[in-house]
Amino acid sequence: MAWYQHEVRLPAVRRGFHIVTDHVVEAVPELARIRVGLMHVFIMHTSASISINENADPDVPLDLELAFNEIAREDFNYRHTLEGPDDMPAHVKSSMIGSSVTIPISGGRLCLGTWQGIYLCEHRDRGGSRRLVVTIQGDEG
User: pTM of this prediction?
Assistant: First the structure.
């Protein structure tokens, strides 16, 4: 059983949902050696999240952003407001979506569905660079 771990720094992006599958895969060259295993991706922030969703239709990330902005509105009467009007809604969205995903590995590749990709869900207007911890465990082939 082999274990590998890397910290991945993602570039700053605008608020919204951004496919980062290639960033993650490129950061972990050991993936190609894993015959069967798991990849765990954890985001080290409380105002952004990580998700798996459709990677084909460019309307999907736009609709996700619209829906989550409606669910966690900035004009809600939050108590935590010192870091700006987008901060507390970002925490709510992050809690709803989650801070990690786990993806099976087979034959040196992620077992994502045909239309699936890993998303950085940036919930702040100016969230800055985001860090991921990517951990792989598995049997090498």
Answer: 0.96
